[in-house]
């Protein structure tokens, strides 16, 4: 290794990398929120409606479907407020209640076919752009990026679970947050 490329301070380089990743995640969060607001406005959804849809989608993707009671907790809103929200989302055709296959007494929330179609129509082009943006990256980079995002998401969930207030009601961080 020649002297021009040698690391003079690996700890500083590491700190710069971590700071850059944190900055990138904030930027990702900010633009994702902007896109979410456009989707919500274009589908006559309120901000909490879209937040609820994101929690339902995340919980489903992680294999941990979410109930209305759990949705109330992760959103930090009252049971009556989440009931009103869920009823509105069912009436609008975005969500439906489905019995939990493991416990028929429990009812989970899931997207309807119509809700999935609306989301796919809006977010499909974003998915295509995302796949195109990553096409030139080697699998090893994508694997490393996935590990970074999982680690950061875990840290965020742990932090959230430790925040006094609504999050304090949880015993551990869960999917859908």
From TrEMBL:
InterPro entries: HTH_MarR-typ (IPR000835), MarR/SlyA-like (IPR039422), Tscrpt_reg_MarR-type_CS (IPR023187), WH-like_DNA-bd_sf (IPR036388), WH_DNA-bd_sf (IPR036390). One of its GO terms (biological process) is response to stress. Keywords: DNA-binding, Transcription, Transcription regulation. Residues 14-154 form the HTH marR-type domain. It holds the Pfam family MarR_2. SUPFAM superfamilies: Winged helix' DNA-binding domain (SSF46785). SMART domains: HTH_MARR (SM00347). Gene3D superfamilies: Winged helix-like DNA-binding domain superfamily/Winged helix DNA-binding domain. GO terms for molecular function: DNA binding; DNA-binding transcription factor activity. PROSITE patterns: HTH_MARR_1 (PS01117), HTH_MARR_2 (PS50995). This is DNA-binding MarR family transcriptional regulator. The lineage of its organism: Bacteria, Bacillati, Actinomycetota, Actinomycetes, Mycobacteriales.
């Amino acid at each position: 290794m020649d002297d021009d490329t040698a690391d003079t301070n690996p700890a500083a380089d590491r700190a710069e990398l971590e700071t850059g990743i944190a900055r990138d995640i904030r930027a990702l969060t900010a633009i994702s929120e902007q896109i979410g607001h456009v989707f919500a406005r274009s589908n006559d959804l309120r901000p909490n409606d879209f937040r609820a849809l994101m929690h339902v989608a995340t919980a489903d993707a992680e294999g941990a479907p979410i109930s209305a009671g759990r949705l109330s907790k992760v959103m930090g809103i009252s049971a009556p407020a989440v009931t009103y929200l869920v009823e509105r989302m069912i009436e609008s055709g975005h969500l439906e209640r489905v019995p939990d296959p493991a416990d028929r007494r429990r009812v989970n929330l899931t997207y309807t076919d119509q809700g999935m179609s609306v989301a796919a129509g809006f977010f499909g082009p974003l998915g295509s752009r995302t796949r195109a943006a990553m096409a030139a990256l080697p699998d090893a980079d994508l694997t490393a990026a996935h590990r970074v995002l999982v680690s950061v998401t875990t840290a965020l969930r742990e932090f959230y679970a430790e925040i006094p207030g609504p999050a304090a009601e949880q015993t551990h961080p869960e999917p859908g947050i």
